[in-house]
Structures are given as C-alpha cells and as structure tokens.
C-alpha cells in the first residue's frame, strides 16, 4: 500500500515521503480501514516539525518514534480483529486511527463510529479532532447554556467552524471573529454577528460575553476578561506560541491567574471519546453541523497539504483523498 512516512523532523516538503509499505494487520481489538478520506490537523505539522521542542520528550528527541502521520479518517472496514464485535467488513466508519495518510490504516474499535449514509467520506473525515475539540470546549469547559452570548475567536478555522455551528445548536447567540475574506463564510455557518479583526478589535467593544472560545490566543488574558461577564468563562484552544514552548506559557498564565479571578479560565486539551464521536455523527446526520472543506489533496500531495495548514490560513478543514 501507499503511505506517508517520515524519519526525521523538518519542513513537510523535505521530510515527508509517499512510499510503498506492507498493509498492516489488525490486532485483536483493532479494525483495518480502507481510507477514503483523511483530514490534516495542526498537530500533524507540529509532529513533522518536532515542535514545540519541549514535546519531543513524548514523540521523539532526535527523530520521530512513530513514522506514520495523520489521525482523522473515514473509510470502509476491510478486516477486524477477533475481539471486535461492533463492526464487520464493509461497514462505513469515521474517527481516529494511526497513520491516516495511507491507503489502509489501523484503528481501535472504540475510536471510530458508523458513518451516516447521508454524510460524505470527506465530511466525516473532517469531523473528529476539530469537532470534538469544539464540542468539549463548549460543553465541558465552557458549560454552555441556551441564550448565552458566545464569542469564537478564529471562527473560520478548523475548530472555529465547528464551534460556531455547535454553539448555535445549543441555542447560544454567537459572535464569530475572522478575517475580511471569511466574513461571509462565518455568517453562513449561523453566526449572529461577525467581527472582522482587521477593522475591529473585539476586546475594545462594548459587548460582553458569557463564554469566549479562543482558538488564536492573539489577545492578552486581561483584554479577553475585559469583555467577559463577571461570571463569564474563557476557554483557550491551541493558539500561538514559541518553537520551544508552544502554548505552555499561556497555559501557565491561566493556571496561575485562575485562583484569583471569578471568571473561570481554562486551557482545552481535547481527548477523543466514543460518546463525542456519536454526538458529532448525530449532528452531521441531522444537518445541524456541516464540515467546511477548504482544499483537497491527493495522497502524494500530503507534504503540500501539511505546509498549507502550517501557514495558518486554512478555512475549515483540509482533506486528503487516497
């Protein structure tokens, strides 16, 4: 089979290779999935670059411990391990797997769910990481309630496009912050108000919010707290940072400040669960959430796809179709 691999850290175009590899065999609790579509996430380019450098203690100091890349996929079950009971060959599924940028990939039974017939493979592949990050940030960390005023900073990105739609599904009044070229897109997702950050600074506005979901981290915590209600919540998802420490300084600031302010502050570190994948499946099947797809790439073009996401201007999700 063809698969994207890498054996050293560096620029995507320099270290990623499309190679012929043996087709993997599923373990007792695993599925072998014939990949129909996969999605690129920011974590992919971080893995390729080996940044932030502090994280190399987990995924390899001098070279990557795992040569495979990609975690979000949708496809057809090709084979199952002997302990798998929920799926059988021929089932259409989506979720998380190991080495999604390949013609075949392995996944745990608990890491995928059935794909609705009404949802295309590309849309399903776009949903897992970005979708459950937005869902967990809003529901678990943000304690979102109907009628609340919610602001999504970075509303046109992978997490942001899901967050706007999911917040609306909870009955919130949503403000999306994005660039000029994305204003119409964010409005089409259901945002009640759209702020063009090139023309307006939401932290200097008179509006006050019950919840800020910050996918960018380009404003200080003090500025963001200024536009929160006295008991409003701030949730940081990813964001900017240095090559050495990434978002860790922001995380430390949140931890140090939280005990001294009434407004709950949190850094979102999402972990996929089957329940969250089921929730996303149901939202997509109902048409309540429609993944936004920016660009599509062939498997051999994964280096360019990862570089495009690294540049930070993707609208929604970038898809790879083996």
Unreliable residue stretches: none
Distance between the termini: 10 Å
Estimated share of beta-strand residues = 25-35%
**Which overall shape is indicated by the principal axes computed on the Cα atoms?**
globular
> Residue-averaged pLDDT, rounded?
94
As a percent range, the share of helical residues equals 25-40%
Biggest sheet statistics: 7 strands, mixed
Total beta strands:
15
Tally of helical segments = 11
Judged by helices, strands and strand pairing, the structural class is alpha/beta
What is the H/E string?
Answer: EHEEHHEEEEHHEHEHEEHEHEHEHE
Radius of gyration: 20 Å
Short description:
The protein has 322 residues and is of the alpha/beta class. Helix content is 29%, strand content 27%. The chain has 11 helices and 15 strands.
Polypeptide structure, described:
By secondary structure, the protein is an alpha/beta fold. It is built from 11 helices and 15 strands. The strands form 3 sheets. Strands 3, 4, 5, 6, 7, 14 and 15 form a 7-stranded mixed beta sheet that branches. A 6-stranded parallel beta sheet has the order 10-9-8-11-12-13, with helices on both faces. A two-stranded antiparallel ribbon has the order 1-2. The mean pLDDT is 94.
């Amino acid at each position: 089979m063809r698969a994207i691999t890498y054996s050293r850290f560096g620029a995507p175009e320099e270290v990623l290779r499309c190679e012929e590899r043996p087709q993997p065999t599923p373990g007792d609790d695993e599925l072998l999935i014939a990949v129909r579509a996969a999605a690129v996430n920011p974590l992919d380019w971080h893995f390729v670059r080996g940044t932030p450098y502090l994280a190399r203690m987990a995924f390899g100091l001098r070279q990557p411990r795992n040569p495979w890349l990609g975690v979000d996929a949708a496809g057809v079950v090709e084979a199952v391990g002997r302990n798998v009971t929920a799926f059988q060959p021929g089932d259409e599924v989506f979720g998380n797997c190991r080495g999604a940028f390949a013609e075949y990939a392995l996944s745990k039974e608990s890491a995928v769910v059935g794909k609705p017939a009404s949802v295309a493979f590309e849309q399903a592949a776009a949903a897992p990481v970005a979708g459950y990050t937005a869902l967990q940030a809003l529901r678990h960390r943000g304690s979102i309630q109907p009628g609340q005023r919610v602001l999504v900073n970075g509303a046109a990105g992978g997490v942001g496009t899901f967050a706007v739609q999911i917040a609306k599904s909870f009955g919130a009044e949503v403000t999306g912050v994005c660039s000029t070229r994305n204003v119409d897109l964010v409005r089409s997702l259901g945002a009640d108000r759209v702020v063009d950050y090139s023309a307006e600074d939401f932290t200097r506005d008179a509006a006050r919010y019950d919840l800020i979901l910050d996918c960018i981290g380009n404003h200080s915590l003090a500025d963001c707290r200024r536009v929160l209600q006295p008991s409003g919540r701030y949730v940081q998802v990813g964001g900017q940072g240095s090559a050495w420490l990434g978002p860790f300084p922001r995380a430390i600031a949140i931890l140090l400040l939280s005990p001294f302010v009434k407004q709950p502050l949190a850094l979102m570190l999402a972990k996929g669960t089957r329940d969250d994948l089921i929730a996303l499946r149901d939202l997509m099947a109902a048409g309540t959430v429609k993944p936004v797809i920016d660009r599509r790439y062939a498997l051999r073009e994964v280096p360019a796809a990862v570089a495009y996401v690294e540049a930070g201007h993707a609208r929604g999700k970038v898809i790879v179709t083996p």
